[in-house]
Amino acid sequence: MTSPDSPRWTLRTLYQPIVDLRDGTPVAVEALSRGEPGPRESAGALFAAARGSGTLVELDEACLRAALRGAGRRAGALTLFVNIEPATLSALSPRRLRALADLVGDDVQVVVEVTERDLLDRAADLVRGVRAVRELGWGVALDDAGAESKGLALMSFLRPDVIKLDLALVRGHTTLRAAAVVNAVRAEAERSGAVLLAEGIESEQHLERALAMGARLGQGWMFGRPGPLATAGMRAFPVPPPPDRRTRAGAAPRTPYDVLSAGSAAQRATLPLVASITRQVERQALVLDEETVVLANFQNAEAMTPSTRRRYESLAGLAALTAVTGAGMPDEPAPGVHGTALDADDPLTDQWVVTVVSPHFAAALAARDVPAGYGDAPGDSTGPAGGPARRLDYVLTYDRERVLDAAGLLLEKVRPTSGTAAPSPAGGEAPTPDAVRVPPGELPDLLLRAIATASNGIVIADATLPDLPVVYANAAFLRLTGYAEHEVLGRNCRFLQGRATDPSQVQPIRRRLLAGRDVHTVLLNYRRDGSAFWNELHISPVTNAIGDVTHYIGNQVDVTSRVERELRTTYLAHHDELTALPNRAHVLDHLRLELRRARRSGTSVGVLMLDLDEFKDINDRFGHAAGDSVLTWAAGRLRSAVRAGDLLGRLGGDEFLVVLAGLPPTGESPGRPEREPSAEETLRLVREHLHAALDHPLTLADATVHLSASSGAALFPRDADDAAELIARADAAMYRHKTRS
Predict the structure, then answer these.
(1) Could you point out which of 417, 637, 638, 728 has its C-alpha 20 to 30 Å from the C-alpha of 256?
(2) Are 336 and 322 a contacting pair, CB within 8 Å?
(3) pLDDT (tens digit, 9 = 90+) per residue, 362-376?
(4) Number of other residues whose CB lies within 10 A of the CB of residue 509
(5) Number of folded domains in the chain?
(6) Last residue of a domain, one of 385, 411, 437
(7) For the segment 563-603, what is each residue's pLDDT rounded down to a tens digit?
(8) d(CA 661, CA 116)
(9) Beta pairing partners, 55
(10) Looking at the structure, do residues 19 and 146 belong to the same domain, yes or no?
(11) Sign of dihedral through CA atoms 634, 639, 641, 647?
(12) Among 242, 264, 297, where does a domain finish?
């Protein structure tokens, strides 16, 4: 028939029976689309033509419409499976979906099949589309489960009613890969009640294998070929859509923190503890199956430090989908990581979230900052350099239902990937291009010659021997590490590790190798001469015909320049390049945090500003190089004079600022020990030490100079209530001192 809504195609809909494997009774049909007789009759040719004209989504919708119309003309109860591609599902508006639903009556139970292939390209749109079809009362089936291992990653997010095992599982050999797919699918079915359906059953052997995998429903030529819709003797299989877990308790919570804290009391902790718990959750993801989804939210893009980027780059090389959201987040904050920038008013920008979901594991952590002065007692612990510790309320859970709810809120924010694959032919297998094959006798020699001349360092380790010894190393690896071949062969590659190699990056590697998993990480390694270099490492397993791992191939690249550039950029964001002291931005942030802590604890904070006298004359007489030497020398002398826990920074030019935190309350304090100096006394003593530290001769190239400085002090809360005003008061006092000198 020709669809009036899409006149460019002549479509035919065939229906293949689906049976209950327990007794062979037909219980449903799957609609399969075909073109007009001739060169475009097959689904593959039909969709290839649409691909060339850029009308794939339009064709897919037309196929769906034709299938529903054909089923709508038949009387009686019917369960109808219809194919729809993720790209089409995400493109259909609620109005267009409702118009399609009106083509069938209430006695037709529609089950929408979304193919496992390419699910991750528009994951957020797909999840929203699945929710929309559920609102119509339709069921959802995951098609081709196992065709691509990464496609299983979204299985738990889709919450399918039916999981269709890919025909390769039914017809193929028993391998570890097949077992991993079956284990993942069975785990989801056990949790959710989803029904397993095996495709491609053509023989008793296929049937036996499908039953062994836990399939209840089946289809294939053994039970009937595609043809006209026939419902005689059919009992419709009921597929009730599962309830949306996020609506059980009423309105859906707005954020992951709301979801998690609704079921567990939040704990309060300092930043280092929350950060370490987060890294532990991320480490757990490194040893999971490749069907894993890692979704995280940082309050802003600046939280993606170089070390964080390296961790997430490693995760992206192993997980099916690694995505990060946050204010100002770039599209690719680390290689392979999908970034999504959030609006400034998005409630997620106030939260720190990491979620990990795989077929056999789920974990989520959500945290938010504790407002200044809220609920903390005096004497709270301090952060680095005596600063106040950043405190967060956090919730950690391994409850799968709540993890999925929290992760789903993040997934809905994730932008589409850069390339969205075209839909596969509806009702048929995707066309497979002809493979380019090398004659078997030439393959080993060709591979070894290619590896030998590669610019990357490549080693091959024997997985069948204890401790995975290296059995091959190419010339590039020997140049990279400085070792001779006889010093490498027979050893485990851990000999490249050294005193500063991060154990948290090393420990997951062996576990992943034992599990036959890929590894992607960046390690600090050491050459034969003891020099360190940053090594970007990819390790891939090589399997034999039955799926056993026989070797590992390690690909290694020196990325020292890249990593050091990232570290340098981070350092310069907080430090003065000339003196290595904290810069103005760092000092101001530190002072603001100290003031927040002082407000909670009732203590005071002092600031001391120093300005070198006649520094301009030194620059004019001896040159700017000499001036830089003076500033560096002065910074070192002042650093030696400040108390432990106080912060010395350079504001700019020849101005320095010292922040003194945890001082006693200003004025009379009856509870203070007799021998404890007051805040004013402490400021005076530190000020004297700073001036004394500068009272030493400094020899320049052509002369010896004696430095002096003017200084001024101010105290919170006596003199000012905020950081800017406090510095202004100290600055005014300093200039009064300078004019009196």
Answers:
(1) 417
(2) yes
(3) 999 999 988 654 554
(4) 20
(5) 4
(6) 411
(7) 888 888 888 888 888 888 999 988 998 898 889 888 888 88
(8) 58
(9) none
(10) yes
(11) positive
(12) 242
